[in-house]
Design brief:
The complex is a heterotrimer of chains A (about 190), B (about 210) and C (about 700). Chain A is mainly α. Chain A contains four helices and no strands. In chain A, helix 1 packs antiparallel against helix 2. The chains are: A mainly alpha (about 190), B mainly alpha (about 210), C mainly alpha (about 700). At the A-B interface, helix 1, helix 2 and helix 3 of A face helix 1, helix 3 and helix 6 of B.
Chain lengths: ~190, ~210, ~700
């Protein structure tokens, strides 16, 4: 692979396509601008209901991304196959990873939320960690003795159930954490 | 259009540029692959942001902190800079004068720096209103995502300055051309990420 | 305080005398502190003395110039590949010693053992981190680096200097882990460093920072490597080397590099966010203030699961090459092997949640990921059948790589089955966090990844260095590995089912003791295996003249890397081959077109050496060390140096040197003359000194795949 060593151009360039290339950038700019104005206007003037607005936002955004890919990056079917393949594969992986993350975190958010602290929200993280078992203790006495035993996931004082330092409070006889028989003394 | 198959993403220099066009194929594909991994990186930070929207810990949220006017101007600045970089790419491909090429690059740089200046101003005013990253998980995620994009734009600006310096030293030679082609890909990619940011972070946050 | 003053206020950051390994035992010589302190000091001493001895030897034999100009600054994929493997072997030695120490501790664990819980935690953290990031990744990267360009008929990878930079980053990360033996302590948070334990509120010290920055350096190196390999395979193949004519090892290299490109970003994000939490008081994963540790777990395993397939796919590639070569037969089921590899690559992104079944999400999610995890076992099963069908009715030669392959097939299937068991969330709840899981992943990592790497090392060593490795010591090492692995890890399945949690420094159940003793004996065998491997290398170098194979084809190989001299010239091929079929070299041998002079000799461009790789290694290490110990001026200086190096590189213009045609011709003709003067050997004489690297080609037809 040898390199040209100077600015000398080996062949005169074909200017006939310059118009088309320029048109590509111009069209891309105009379309992207239109989509941008549309979307900002919709939000600024609260044009529709929230969910419909969010969907429209998403679609117009996706459309603008495609505009950029086509008009500025010149990605299309006339390409070496691997360029488009890579883009589509990346898109697929992005979809799996982002959708999977949202699905998992949403489920965790529903099932593992720490109850709101009774005191102010201005504690440091360390105070939070130390206070959390106390929080569970304070919440506990409200449960009458004769009621059915609390399910194991009610105790949310720690967000990491796998932690060795399981809270020693708050487990009724009918619900015990799966403590391993040979757990080491710490 | 009787164009041959494009060798790589972005504007192809075409046969008139000789071996530079041939060498561009591997270099541009490599950079394209790098951008895909960067896209996944941004995707994960987006996912962190979206799943942290409720993690405000009683602190300020989007409605308290986001300034739609500023975001609108930033968006226009970046979109214009994509267009001006396109003009620079055309000046390169069609072998217009070096002054024209550097001129378009310079305008792009100014627009990019305008974007950054405005964005930094936004961050400082957010912090002044109590919306700093250490306030909550939500704000941490915001300050991961948007400054990450800003850091990329900063790197792009530094790269642009280096390319202009190389032009001053070597003229528009083989490596300068390949550098401009790659920076073009990078610049357009950053504008695409910005579309996602203004849609998902700012506009969705303000609906 | 001004910025400058703040930067130099604490020139050594938080480094202090307390960071030295013997300080605590000097201050407070209790029995515990003395034992742990002595072990730590011994380890530190080995590192320091080792480094001093190395420097002394290089100086004594005046090899600095050679080391710098021929190796460290080289952009040749072959040299870089060798350096990666050397790094891997050094780190393997350290991590195995740590493994032995852990087994020793657990053998005496009923009475509390001799290690403190903190020391034990550091051991399992470094053992895991080193084995994954600084042993397995460099090993496979080194093998792919060396072999893949040769197999596709290319002269080098697409971005040779980036290759050197990747090596530098990986080495810098390894150096950081090694220096943690001398100053300070490594993380005690395991190889996956879950917050909030690794947050500043629970672990403000240098441990988690060592871990974060070592991983960051390594993951950046791997991302660039993945990009490099993928572009090389797409763009640098020789004429006629269509994708479906590539050897299986190259196919697995392609899928591995795609996994590297897409799996590293989540790790970068997770460690960066943890660093932001620790350094700038962000709240990604903290307790309270909106932090959520599950974000980390999710991100980490989005990386972590594809990572284990990054580790295993190249090993599968090695086995494909080894099994077909030493069965004297074409690989059975090429298309199914390729499809299975691609299937594994894609599916590996869909199963990550099985690493945290028990962490609170609902049963539907668990079920989906459980099913996906079981599905991914199917393509691997297809591969195992293909290898078995390759061996069936072939003429199997029990060379060292083949022994490892057979051990792999038998043992890996068991490990895979235990994985399918674990893929069931209900079962996983029972054995989660026990040593059953430890047994499973070692069962797939050791016979899978490690045996594959060692088999590849044996298989391609003669190509890289021009002489074969000693077979006797090789077989002894393989035997010790196979039996050592079984003794060390099969008891752990039972112990796990009986309830022994993983990472237990001590336990109170008497019933665990017999199996722990068996496992400890296994650990001794594993150390013996390592020793045998090192002795083998020493003996082979000593006897190298007897075992020379300069003709380049000691095993009757099938793919293009065997069509060159041993070692190959810098430019790989005097004339780029034109490929017409799969198993290109076998086809050439059968048609009599192997060992032909080039039709035309031309000047060949090869990349010039560059100091960028070692510079980025040094600067990367400095930045990481500075960040770990809060030496801010060092961080600033290193960052500026890094940016400066990249800018200066941008101004570099003369990036290639030309090897003149007459030199290429002279080297080629010398090699062809030596081939003509060499006696070819049959496969029966393959292991004898008569084997000078020229094969009398034999082939069993078998079933046409």
């Amino acid at each position: 692979m040898s390199q040209p060593h100077s600015q000398a151009h080996p062949a005169p360039v074909d200017r006939s396509e310059e118009g088309q290339d320029f048109a590509s950038y111009l069209w891309g700019f105009v379309l992207a601008l239109t989509l941008t104005l549309a979307v900002f206007a919709l939000v600024h003037w609260h044009a529709t209901a929230r969910v419909a607005l969010l969907i429209t936002l998403g679609l117009l955004g996706l459309l603008q991304v495609i505009v950029h890919f086509h008009f500025f990056l010149h990605i299309g079917f006339r390409h070496k196959r691997e360029d488009l393949q890579l883009l589509l594969f990346s898109g697929l992986l992005l979809l799996i990873m982002v959708a999977g993350t949202v699905w998992i975190m949403a489920s965790l958010g529903r099932r593992m939320t720490v109850p709101a602290a009774p005191a102010s929200a201005s504690r440091s993280a360390l105070e939070d960690a130390e206070a959390a078992p106390e929080l569970a203790m304070r919440a506990r006495p409200a449960t009458p003795v004769t009621s059915p035993p609390a399910p194991c996931d009610v105790d949310r004082s720690q967000t990491d159930p796998a932690s060795v330092r399981a809270p020693r409070v708050a487990h009724t006889a009918a619900c015990r954490p799966a403590a391993a028989p040979g757990a080491p003394a710490r | 259009m009787s164009q041959p198959v494009a060798r790589h993403p972005g504007l192809n220099l075409g046969g008139a540029h000789g071996s530079t066009d041939a060498a561009a194929e591997r270099l541009m594909f490599g950079f394209w692959v790098f951008l895909m991994s960067d896209a996944i990186l941004f995707g994960m930070v987006f996912a962190s942001y979206v799943t942290s929207l409720d993690a405000r810990a009683g602190g300020p949220g989007p409605h308290d902190l986001y300034d739609i006017r500023s975001v609108f101007i930033e968006t226009l600045l970046l979109l214009c800079s994509s267009f001006t970089f396109g003009m620079a790419s055309l000046a390169l491909k069609y072998q217009h004068s070096t002054r024209r090429l550097v001129g378009w690059l310079g305008v792009t740089l100014l627009l990019g720096m305008g974007f950054l200046g405005l964005e930094i101003h936004d961050f400082l005013s957010m912090i002044a209103k109590g919306g700093s990253a250490s306030r909550s998980g939500f704000l941490s995620a915001f300050f991961d995502l948007v400054p990450l994009h800003g850091a990329h734009v900063t790197a792009g600006c530094i790269w642009l300055v280096c390319l202009v310096a190389q032009i001053a030293r070597f003229g528009v030679d083989h490596w300068v051309k390949l550098g401009i082609l790659r920076l073009a890909l990078f610049w357009h990619f950053l504008d695409i990420i910005w579309i996602a940011i203004f849609s998902v972070v700012y506009l969705a946050g303000l609906t | 305080m001004s910025l400058v003053a703040a930067l130099i206020a604490h020139p050594l950051g938080r480094l202090s005398l307390q960071s030295l390994p013997f300080w605590q035992m000097l201050q407070d010589p209790s029995k515990d502190n003395l034992i742990n302190g002595c072990i730590a000091t011994t380890a530190a001493a080995i590192v320091v003395i080792g480094a001093v001895v190395l420097v002394a030897l290089i100086t004594r034999y005046r090899k600095w110039r050679v080391l710098w100009s021929e190796w460290l600054t080289s952009a040749d994929h072959k040299k870089i590949g060798i350096m990666y493997v050397v790094l891997a072997l050094v780190m393997l030695a350290r991590a195995l010693i740590e493994a032995w120490l852990m087994r020793a501790q657990q053998a005496f664990g009923l009475h509390g053992g001799f290690l403190s819980p903190e020391h034990f935690s550091e051991l399992f953290s470094t053992h895991g981190t080193i084995m994954i990031f600084f042993m397995a990744m460099p090993f496979l990267t080194g093998l792919i680096n060396y072999v893949m360009p040769l197999q596709i008929g290319a002269r080098d990878v697409s971005f040779p200097v980036l290759n050197s930079v990747s090596l530098g980053l990986t080495a810098a990360g390894a150096a950081l882990v090694m220096i943690s033996l001398v100053v300070g302590k490594f993380s005690t948070g395991g190889w996956f460093g879950y917050p909030p334990y690794t947050e500043a509120s629970f672990n403000p010290g240098e441990g988690p920072d060592y871990w974060i920055w070592a991983l960051t350096l390594s993951s950046l190196g791997s991302t660039f490597t993945g990009i490099n390999f993928a572009v090389t395979i797409y763009k640098e193949r020789a004429p006629g080397m269509w994708l479906r004519r590539m050897p299986l090892f190259t196919w697995t290299a392609l899928c591995t590099s795609i996994l590297m490109i897409f799996a590293m970003p989540p790790l970068t994000v997770a460690t960066a966010q943890l660093a932001l939490d620790r350094y700038l008081h962000f709240h990604f994963f903290t307790n309270g203030m909106g932090g959520n540790l599950m974000h980390f777990a999710n991100l980490f395993w989005l990386f972590g699961h594809p990572e284990v397939y990054i580790l295993i796919l190249p090993a599968f590639g090695v086995y494909s090459e080894v099994v077909s070569t030493f069965s004297t037969k074409a690989l059975f089921g090429y298309r199914s092997l390729v499809l299975a590899t691609m299937g594994i690559a894609v599916l590996s992104f869909t199963v990550w949640l099985h690493h945290f079944f028990t962490m609170g999400q609902n049963v539907d999610i668990n079920a989906y990921f459980g099913i996906a995890s079981m599905l991914i076992g199917i393509p691997t099963g297809v591969k195992v059948y293909d290898w078995m069908w390759t061996m069936f009715r072939g003429r199997v030669r029990f060379t060292v790589p083949m022994i490892y392959s057979i051990g792999f097939i038998l043992l890996f299937v068991l490990g895979g089955m235990s994985g399918i068991i674990l893929a069931n969330p209900s079962v996983d709840y029972q054995v989660h966090n026990t040593v059953f899981l430890v047994a499973h992943f070692h069962n797939v990592a050791v016979p899978g990844v490690l045996f594959g790497m060692i088999a590849g090392y044996h298989f391609w060593f003669p190509k890289a260095f021009g002489f074969r490795l000693d077979e006797r010591w090789g077989k002894l090492s393989a035997w010790c590995w196979i039996w050592g692995f079984m003794l060390a890890f099969f008891p752990l399945y039972g112990l796990g089912l009986e309830g022994l949690p993983r990472r237990s420094v001590a336990y109170t159940e008497r019933a665990y003791v017999p199996m722990e003793i068996v496992a400890f004996i296994g650990a001794f065998l594993v150390i013996a295996a390592l020793a045998a491997l090192l002795v083998q290398l020493w003996v082979s170098v000593r006897d190298r003249d007897r075992n020379r194979v300069t003709a380049g084809d000691p095993w009757d190989g099938r793919s293009l890397e065997w069509a060159t001299s041993a070692p190959p010239p810098e430019y790989n091929f005097a004339q780029l081959p034109v490929v017409t079929e799969r198993d290109a070299f076998t086809v050439a041998k059968e048609q009599g077109t192997a060992y032909r002079a080039a039709r035309r000799y031309v000047d060949i461009e090869v990349p010039r050496h560059s100091a960028l790789g070692p510079i980025i290694a040094a600067v990367g290490f400095a930045a990481a060390f500075g960040l770990t110990w809060h030496i801010w001026w060092l961080v600033l200086a290193a960052t500026l140096a890094l940016i400066g190096a990249m800018i200066v590189r941008g101004f570099a213009r003369d990036l290639e040197k030309s090897i003149p045609a007459w030199q290429v011709q002279a080297e080629q003709e010398a090699w062809l003359q030596s081939v003509a003067a060499t006696a070819s050997v049959t496969r029966a004489q393959e292991a004898s000194a008569a084997n000078r690297g020229l094969a009398r080609h034999e082939e069993i037809a078998g079933v046409i795949p």
